[in-house]
């Protein structure tokens, strides 16, 4: 176990890079089988998924495309508070098999919003492919077809995920050390 300090917090290794890469390869193998003959469009959600998306795509062997979207938060006028808008989607996804590549599904609110937004554009199918899933925190019903790891409800950083925008460059995944 190694420790890192980011700003005011200490984290310790919970998923080493080698273990991550092995799981990511297994997810890619499943996708290669499930989407054979279909040319799916991978849509990676920035910023958190950039490292995962790169490693996943290196193991995809079927014809495919990849593009990137971002979620912009703005304060809504309704009681739901922060609304997230999908920006940067230039592809026509009508009739396409779309695989959403996400870093982590926590409450599931973000993915629900993505599915609603993308669903209006009439894709042939929408599939969630997340690196991490915190099943204990999921509050909306979501069909998560691909999840590399199920993890406890602790805050994590590294391998693309940030703490206050830092730590995305770390090769391993680290968990917050509770004081
Ligand atoms: P949800 O909408 O599913 O509750 O939250 C998803 C988003 O919250 C993720 O895309 C990610 O940005 C952030 N998030 C949730 N849990 C963690 C965590 O443990 N570490 C980091 N760095 N971000 C998290
Ligand atoms: Mg994310
Ligand atoms: Mg973040």
TrEMBL record:
Protein name per its UniProtKB record: Hypoxanthine phosphoribosyltransferase
Pfam family of the protein (one): Pribosyltran
Keywords recorded for this protein, A-Z: Cytoplasm, Glycosyltransferase, Magnesium, Metal-binding, Nucleotide-binding, Purine salvage, Transferase
UniProt catalytic activity: GMP + diphosphate = guanine + 5-phospho-alpha-D-ribose 1-diphosphate; IMP + diphosphate = hypoxanthine + 5-phospho-alpha-D-ribose 1-diphosphate
One GO location term (cellular component): cytosol
PANTHER family hit by this protein: HYPOXANTHINE PHOSPHORIBOSYLTRANSFERASE, HYPOXANTHINE-GUANINE PHOSPHORIBOSYLTRANSFERASE
This protein's pathway: Purine metabolism; IMP biosynthesis via salvage pathway; IMP from hypoxanthine: step 1/1
UniProt-listed GO biological process terms: GMP salvage; guanine salvage; hypoxanthine metabolic process; IMP salvage; purine ribonucleoside salvage
